[in-house]
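Training component of the fellowship. As part of building independent skills, the fellow (R.M.) carried out the full modelling exercise for a liganded target. The chosen ligand was iron/sulfur cluster. The inputs are recorded below so that the supervisory panel can assess the work.
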Amino acid sequence: MGKKLFIKSYGCQMNVYDADRMADVLAPHGWTLTDAPDGADMVILNTCHIREKASEKVFSDLGRLRPLKQAREEAGERMILAVAGCTAQAEGAEIMVRAPIVDIVMGPQTYHRLPEMVARASRAAESKAGGKRKGVLDTEFPVEPKFDFLPEPVAKGPASFLSVQEGCDKFCTFCVVPYTRGAEYSRPVADVLSEARALVKGGAVEITLLGQNVNAYHGEAANGGEWGFGRLIRELAEIDGLERIRYTTSHPRDMDDDLIAAHRDVDKLMPFLHLPVQSGSDRILHLMNRQHKAEDYLRLVEKLRDARPDLALSSDFIVGFPGESERDFEDTLELVRRVGFVQAYSFKYSPRPGTPAAAMELQVPEEAKAERLAALQELLSEQTLAFNRACTGRVMDVLLDRHGKLDGQLLGRSPYMQPVHVQAPEALLGKLVRLRILDGHANSLSGEMAADLQQERALA
Ligand code: SAH
Ligand code: SF4
Ligand code: F3S
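Fellow's submitted model of the complex:
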C-alpha cells in the first residue's frame, strides 16, 4: 500500500533540489508526496542553519507536529518524523535530545541512505514497546558521493534545478555552510550532462545550475581532465530543447575569464547574475575572509558588463558584522550606488555557533543593525523599482511557469528573473512567450500578449 510523505524545505534552492531527490529515492519504496503533514506517514523537515531565526524554526515546527504524531499513535498508526538539512547536520545530537519525538536526523550528504534509515526507524518503533526509544542519527560525510546512488531526477515543470557542485572551502568567518555541507565537491561532467538531458526530455525548458559555490565548479571530464564552469555551460547550451541556463550562487573570486566570456558568447545563458558581495568596506571584507576588495568587485562588474551589456546584477549583503562602523556601512551604500542592483537580499549579521565571527569582539548592537538594514533596503528597493519601471514598453521572452493569483493569469520569469504577470490562455503554461511589458512594480512586471509579437517569435 502507498505511504504518504510530506517534506517541508527551508533555506536555499539546494534544499529544494534535495527535497526532490529525497522523494525520488523513496518513491520505489512506496512513498508518494502529499502536500500537508496531516495524514502523512512520514514528515521530513529539511532545515536551514544559515541564521539563528532560520535555524530555530525547526523547533517551532516540531512543536506543531507533536499533536499530529501523538494523535496517529493513539489511533494505532505511525508518523515517522525526520529532520534533514543543515541544522540536522550542525545540531543533530541536540535535536535528538531536545525533541524526542524525532525518529531520524540526517545530514545533507546521507540522503541516498534514506530508505535504510526509514527501515531502521520503523524497526526501532516496533521493538520500542517497554524499551527505550531509539532514534536514527546519520550526519556522516560518507566517502561515496550521494549523487552516485540517487535515481536520475524527473523534470517537475518547465524550470528545473540541477545541483552540480556542493559544499564550500571558502570559510567566510560568518558562515556555517562549510561545516554543514562539507568540503567542496563537483559532480563529473558526464553526470551533469545526462541529468540535464533527462530534465529536458521530461519537459524542462530552463535549468538553474546549483551549488553553494557553483562557479568554483571543476568537474571530471570524459578525457580524464577537468572542466571549469564556463566550459560546462557551453556544453549544456548544445542541448536541443534547453532554452535557458541560469546558475546560483557564485563567489566573486571564482568568476574567471572563461565564465565571463560565456556570458558574452552563450545566448542561452540568461543576463542575470546573483553575485554576493556582503559588504562594500575593505576592512569588513577582510574580517569576513571574503578574499576580495570592494574595488575588485567593481572591476569584475565592469568586465561582466563589457561582456554582456544588459547583465542584471543581484547580491547578498550582511549589515552589522562585528566591528562594522557607520563609515564601513557608508562604504556598502556607496558600492550599491555604484553598481546598481536589480534585486538583492540583505540580512542582519547573525552570530553562528562555531564560526570565527561569532567570537569576535565589537559585536554591533541590535538597534544599529536594524537601522542599517532599513537604510540599505530602502536604497536597494529604489534600485529594483527603477529597473522594473525602466522595463515598461520593452519586449521580453517570459517563461510562464505558474498560475497567477487572478483568474486567467499566468506568472513567469523575464530573462532578468523578474516575475511577470500576464492574462494568457492556460495552454501557454510551461511555454516561453514573447510579451510586451506594460508596467513595472516594486517586485514584478505586468505584461501583455500581443499578436504581432507572437508571430515575430514564431518566425525567429
Ligand atoms: N555561497 C553563497 C552564500 C550562501 S549563504 C556565497 O558565498 O555568497 C546566503 C547568504 O546568507 C550569504 O550570502 C550571506 O549574505 C547570508 N549569511 C550567511 N551567513 C550569515 C550570518 N551568519 N548572518 C547573516 N547573514 C548570513
Ligand atoms: Fe558561506 Fe562564504 Fe562559502 Fe558562501 S563562500 S557558502 S558565504 S563560506
Ligand atoms: Fe541554509 Fe544550508 Fe542552504 S544553511 S542556505 S540550507 S546550504
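The panel noted the following from the submitted structure. The chain has three domains: 3-138, 146-390, 395-459. Residues 11-12, 14-15, 48-50, 85-86, 176-177, 180-181, 212 surround FE3-S4 cluster (ligand 3) (CB under 6 Å).
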